[in-house]
């Protein structure tokens, strides 16, 4: 009887605690009922997560740094006396089991406490039956880093534990109860561990487990004076595959990629983890010198040479890898991963499908990027951008057929900066939107001014980036720019790369249709470098396509490039599209292209992009006599 009273007393305490949570606000409870005799559980460093499973729903509270906030206000339910089913608490600072146990013993000293590896189970009896159970899980992560799915799994486990308890107690299996319960909880713990430390899609360790292992390897490497390599791997153009072929194919590709990478890193001490999205991180702790890490990087690049066959699609994808080495490139997990990431970006800039070792200058580069971003924000107001124009020539008679406007930045200290150095940053930061509008307006105005000055009328092409294409009011912006410049829409060509077009193909088709209805012409830039989806090509209202420079470069002596260019030209003819070959630098290239029936060409052979003043003579009636190719004309 005394026991029962004590149990009931405990239950009332717990109920009181939860009632206080509901009525007083959590922070007060924190300092009163919950902390009662258990201050070590809740400190400024501690996050606590509580789930009370109730027949009418789940009540959830979160706490970070000691402040409690209701997380899911919508599901707050009133609790009836004695209807508490389960509670769950998670602490940010790793708590030793015995300190948790003392917390429970002290605050609910009358409860029977079952200790497990990382959890405590506190059955709460009422009149000889299990009325509730308090399940306390220990977690090593701050609450805000624990994902929702995992927390739900905890809540689910807590209530499953309680149900089993009730059942077993009801059946009178008191003796076996605790043992079975521990077993059940261990299995649940294993499931939770799997979710907490492994990536659900690929089964690889996740970032959390990776950090744990890296921390251990670094401690060992420090004692043994050895190296540890960290690699940051990002798949090139993965998004394109995801967007064109769908997430199911994308996911399967990631699984296959994970397998191949794992096969390259099989030594003891190697860990391949998924960082998220299409990013992987790798730890190699068995290396004796930097060379060993480079060998592995080579091996990884090599295993990507063969295509991945996913759902009947033959997919080619390449990785970009950045490598940092302990202790030279960093002594902590964060520093090593960050520097490997910086090196990975460098690998991407260098043309993808490659790896880069971290070098301290790269951080200087990151700093340079930051100051460049700041400069760029001011550059528009200061009129530091200028346009250069490059002719597209009709090689049948040597006259300029149209021109392309290419932006440059006249930087006060760096001089003339080419677009390759600032367009990607402008895209990343969103500055491309105002900059792109400036380019469009300036090119339209310039074209109109040349027409007014009596030069032969011709189209001007302007490049459009992904960010601009995603603008809701893009069509209206183009319309306004044309109207303000007084230029008829037919004199404007919008150039968009294949990959940008495919980012959201259906939306692009809608936008292009509206532009086409307005009279604007559309060209596909860098054709052949993206997915070259013929299915879509037919659907896009485009008027011309530009054969990418990479096919033109070796066309005079590489039969494959010649065959590709030939195929593109005949296909374009079939679809009634104009073809422009980009990057024509030599007479030989021009001859091969001409033999393939390509009439329009652009490249240094004819003229480099030039500022408006220098471009004017090319516009004259005698245009061909000003072009470089008069040499062979
Ligand atoms: N090696 C070689 N290169 C040649 C030859 N002929 C022309 N080029 C270069 O090829 C690029 C053609 O432009 P793009 O493919 O649209 O590629 C452009 C375009 O994607 C982007 N870009 C330039 N201006 C703008 C702009 O106003 N807006 C946007 N969104 N992108 C722009 O920057 C890229 C690079 O522009 P540029 O440096 O001006 O580089 C230009 C041009 O200078 C040649 O014979 N040989």
TrEMBL record:
Residues 226-360 form the GGDEF domain. NCBIfam families: GGDEF. It comes from Geobacter benzoatilyticus. This is EAL domain-containing protein. SMART domains: EAL, GGDEF. CDD domains: EAL, GGDEF. Coiled coil: none annotated. Residues 369-623 form the EAL domain. Pfam families: EAL, GAF, GGDEF. It comes from the Bacteria.
């Amino acid at each position: 009887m005394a026991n029962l009273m004590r149990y009931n007393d405990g239950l009332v305490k717990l109920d009181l605690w939860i009632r206080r949570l509901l009525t007083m606000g959590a922070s007060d409870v924190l300092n009163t009922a919950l902390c009662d005799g258990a201050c070590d559980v809740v400190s400024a460093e501690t996050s606590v997560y509580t789930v009370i499973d109730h027949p009418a729903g789940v009540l959830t509270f979160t706490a970070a740094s000691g402040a409690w906030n209701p997380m899911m206000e919508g599901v707050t339910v009133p609790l009836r006396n004695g209807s508490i089913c389960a509670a769950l608490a998670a602490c940010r600072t790793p708590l030793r089991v015995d300190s948790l146990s003392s917390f429970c013993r002290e605050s609910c000293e009358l409860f029977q406490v079952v200790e497990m590896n990382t959890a405590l189970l506190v059955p709460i009896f009422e009149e000889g039956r299990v009325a509730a159970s308090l399940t306390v899980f220990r977690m090593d992560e701050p609450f805000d880093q624990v994902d929702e799915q995992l927390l739900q799994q905890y809540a689910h486990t807590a209530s499953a534990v309680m149900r089993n308890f009730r059942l077993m107690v009801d059946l009178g299996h008191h003796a076996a109860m605790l043992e079975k319960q521990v077993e059940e909880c261990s299995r649940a713990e294993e499931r939770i561990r799997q979710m907490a430390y492994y990536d659900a899609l690929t089964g690889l360790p996740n970032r959390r487990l990776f950090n744990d292992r890296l921390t251990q390897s670094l401690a060992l490497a420090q004692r043994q004076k050895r190296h540890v390599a960290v690699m940051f791997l990002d798949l090139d153009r993965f998004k394109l595959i995801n967007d064109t072929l769908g997430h199911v194919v994308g996911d399967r590709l990631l699984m296959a990629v994970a397998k191949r990478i794992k096969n390259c890193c099989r030594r003891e001490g190697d860990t391949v983890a998924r960082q998220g999205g299409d990013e992987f991180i790798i730890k190699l702790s068995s290396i004796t010198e930097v060379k060993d890490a480079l060998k592995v990087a080579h091996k990884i690049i090599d295993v990507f040479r063969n295509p991945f066959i996913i759902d009947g699609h033959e997919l080619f994808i390449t990785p970009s890898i950045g490598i940092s080495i302990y202790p030279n490139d960093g002594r902590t997990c964060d520093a090593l991963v960050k520097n490997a990431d910086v090196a990975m970006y460098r690998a991407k800039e260098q043309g993808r499908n490659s790896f880069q070792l971290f070098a301290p200058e790269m951080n200087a580069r990151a700093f340079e990027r930051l100051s460049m971003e700041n400069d760029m924000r001011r550059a528009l107001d200061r009129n530091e951008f200028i346009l250069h124009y490059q002719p597209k020539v009709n090689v049948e008679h040597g006259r300029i057929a149209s021109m392309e406007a290419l932006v440059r930045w006249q930087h006060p200290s760096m001089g003339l900066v080419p677009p390759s150095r600032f367009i990607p940053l402008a895209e990343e930061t969103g500055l491309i939107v105002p900059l792109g509008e400036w380019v469009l307006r300036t090119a339209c105005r310039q074209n109109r001014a040349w027409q007014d000055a009596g030069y032969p009328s011709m189209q001007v092409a302007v490049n459009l980036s992904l960010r601009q294409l995603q603008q809701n009011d893009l069509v209206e912006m183009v319309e306004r720019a044309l109207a303000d410049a007084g230029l008829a829409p037919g004199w404007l060509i919008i150039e968009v790369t294949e990959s940008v077009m495919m980012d959201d193909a259906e939306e692009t088709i809608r936008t292009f249709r509206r532009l086409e209805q307005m009279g604007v012409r559309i060209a596909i830039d860098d054709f052949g470098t993206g997915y070259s989806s013929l299915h879509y090509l037919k659907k896009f209202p485009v008027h011309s396509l530009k054969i990418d420079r990479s096919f033109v470069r070796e066309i005079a002596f590489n039969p494959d490039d010649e065959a590709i260019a030939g195929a593109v030209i005949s296909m374009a003819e079939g679809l009634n599209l104009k073809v422009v070959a980009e990057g024509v630098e030599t007479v030989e290239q021009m001859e091969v292209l001409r033999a393939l029936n390509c009439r329009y060409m652009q490249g240094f052979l004819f003229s480099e992009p030039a500022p408006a003043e220098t471009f004017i003579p090319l516009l004259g009636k005698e245009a061909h006599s000003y072009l470089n190719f008069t040499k062979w004309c």
